[in-house]
Structure prediction request, 672 residues.
Amino acid sequence: MNRSSLPGIVYSLPGIAWLSFFFLIPYIIIIIYSFLTPGIYGGVTLPFSLESYTRMLTSPGYWELLWQTVWISVMATVICLGLSLPVAYYIATSKRKNLLLTLVVIPFWTNFLVRIFAWMLVLGRTGLVNSFLLWTGLIEQPLQLMYRPATVIVVIVYMYLPYMILPLYSSIEKFDFTLLEAGMDLGANRNEAILKVLIPSIKGGIIAGVILVFIPALGSYAIPDLVGGTEGAMLGNLIAKQLTVARNWPSSSAISMIFLLISTLGLLVYLRMNAIQARVRRFRVREDYMKEQEQ
Amino acid sequence: MKDYSVKLSGVTKVFEDEFTAVDKVFLSIEQGEFFSLLGPSGCGKTTILRMIAGFEEPTSGVIFLNGRDISKTPPHKREVNTIFQNYALFPHLTVFENIAFSLRLRKKAEREVKNEVGKMVELSRLFGQENKYPHQLSGGQKQRVAIARALVNKPSVLLLDEPLAALDAKLRQHMLVELDNIHDEVGITFIYVTHDQNEAMSISDHLAVMNEGKIVQKGDPIEVYESPRNAFVANFIGETNFFVGEVAKTEGEYLLLRTTAFGDIWCYMDREVAEGTRIEVSLRPEKVKISKSRPRGDHKLRLNILEGTVDETIYLGNHTKYTVQTRESYMKSFKQHARYLLDEEIIEWKDRVYLWWFADDSYLLQETGGARSDEQK
Ligand SMILES: Nc1ncnc2c1ncn2[C@@H]1O[C@H](COP(=O)(O)OP(=O)(O)OP(=O)(O)O)[C@@H](O)[C@H]1O
Ligand SMILES: [Mg+2]
Prediction:
């Protein structure tokens, strides 16, 4: 049979099947669960009800936690971006790219949880940082470095940094550096050239990096659970608590929906942004035309 | 002291790997002139431009712009703009915004931006392209955007790095004329880099021929073409025939050159040379006449006549390039066709022919060591 006569859909079938089984169907189950009534020993029973949602949306604790989750994720993403840009730039222009890239991904060779525990050893009351500061005499009492929102941010940044560096690296690597020179030639200093020429040219890489860090950060569970304590808790912890301690499956399903909402909103905004930009451009052209007519 | 537009004083560039790309270059480029840097690939042309623009720092030597030492000035503060070898248009900006880039950096009012960009669009004939993105443009249009973008800033010098290399021959001719017009219109100094001698010859006020990081010869195009300094220049600027030999005797303004490849040849002596010296002589092929019948000899005119067989003919419409084998060597002769199919003698491959030229038409090279007598073909 002629290969090229196979419609594209045939090739994408395995992928679609995979996504349906492991992503779409579970998600539909969660959506349905969120509208049901909790069973006595966990699980769900009929009838359908909006109870989970109304309870969630009227609880001030929930809103606070949502705010903290978004805030921690945004901070972590921004810090990741700020750290990764110079690193990716350096790697892309270095002669030892392969070595440096290997160094970036080496942490992946160690288990995720083990690396979180390592941070507990570093930041704990008797951890490395405190021992060192006590030894130098800068402090007399150990500092409380664990179980704060900042602790969660630090560890999220540490975990997801490579996901930001790699897409940035690959788009900077493709960037034509004479464009930077052209910018400087036309009167931009180095920073202006980077801001006005490099950044817009690697927009794709930045968006990819932001998505790859922000979305998983939003859904963090293990990190805030181990290093966040009560002060540094995130929505992921609440979902787990509802599921295991309170045994309220519909409630934890309803809370999960918020992630779907945020990601979808983000995607829509991104798509709209392009459309809006195009529209603004067209509008400007029209405006200019009208002005010329008046003169 | 006269203030030159651009002056290079003993500029040398040695890269980290100890490679000397530019070697003690002295250049004085006058205000408003069209100056070309001509040389084979890798001879250091781009490196010189990059040093003038400020992207490379000279290892030693000083660069002056309008009489001021700019060696320590960063690129964005130099009143010099560049047209890059690959144009380097900003892919994320429209044609309008590309041209407006430097105006926006200087926070010009919207009205002024429109006005200035409009002028450039007119100068470089880009009407109706303002809202396109670079990837939607043809090669020639990209070229024009690059010119407009570089000129909108009103630099005092425009650097052009092989701006026409990516265009096809026809468009290249066209853009060359256009560049010339733009140069006349804006009146600023143009420094033009190319390895195409025809481009450089046709458009420049002055040019410098480079080889291996050194300037070999500077002058106006006629000077460089008619009196090349050495075999490299003679060969690079157009095609040529070389004679290498010893001066057998001198007679008034003429000398007799004894060569192994072509026998004895009369040459005009445009500088003193002693009998017995080894010299090189260049003779442009268009000065060598070719005919089937033997021309009448004339000792007063010191006519040189050689006999040979046509080895190769390249018909180019308005003229033909002949390569003729004489004894062991080859000589080139170009013949213009004024009346080709009317009463002109048709010369074909393998024909026995005579090559002849006046002693006045050859030129003694000032430096020897470049040409080998067996290198004729
Ligand atoms: N950054 C660099 N490091 C080391 N060597 C370099 C560097 N840039 C250029 N060179 C070398 O310097 C020499 C001159 O380069 P340059 O780009 O000036 O040549 P060019 O005359 O512009 O050639 P072309 O006509 O091919 O553009 C070349 O041999 C090149 O390999
Ligand atoms: Mg070059």
Remarks:
- The longest helix of chain B spans residues 169-186.
- The pocket of adenosine-5'-triphosphate (ligand 1) is lined by residues B 15, 17, 19, 21, 39, 41-47, 195 (CB under 6 Å).
